[in-house]
Amino acid sequence: MSGWAFLWQAADGLLAESMIFAVRLYQIFLSPIFGRQCIYQPTCSHYFIGAVQKYGPLVGAVRGAWRICRCHPFSRGGYDPP
What function does the entry list (predicted)? Predict the structure, then answer.
């Protein structure tokens, strides 16, 4: 593996772990305050983590953000895996 590929892979992993850490902080500290609001299963925060783990930080973040945008009272909700 070349040096640039290694650096890119390391940066990609660090970014993914940082995103997951931020969502975990939300789950621990803010989610209990707001209560259960998500109409989807798994919840939007769990979906975001799964999408980042499955697709990487860039595509996963876009998919997670799209899911959060769809989470509103007029949406059907239901089961929607990453």
Answer: Could be involved in insertion of integral membrane proteins into the membrane.
Torsion of CA 66, 51, 77, 30, to 10 degrees: -90
Side chain identity at 67, as an amino acid letter? R
Spell out the residues 6+ positions from residue 69 whose beta carbon is closer than 8 angstroms to its own: none
pTM for the predicted model, two decimal places: 0.88
Query: What pLDDT, in 10s, does the model give residues 23-45?
Result: 999 999 999 998 888 899 999 99
Specify the 3-state DSSP secondary structure of 78: strand
Q: What is the pLDDT of residues 54-74, one digit of tens each?
A: 999 999 999 999 999 998 888
Instruction: Return phi, psi of residue 68, to 5°.
Output: -65, -40
Owning domain of residue 31: 3-79
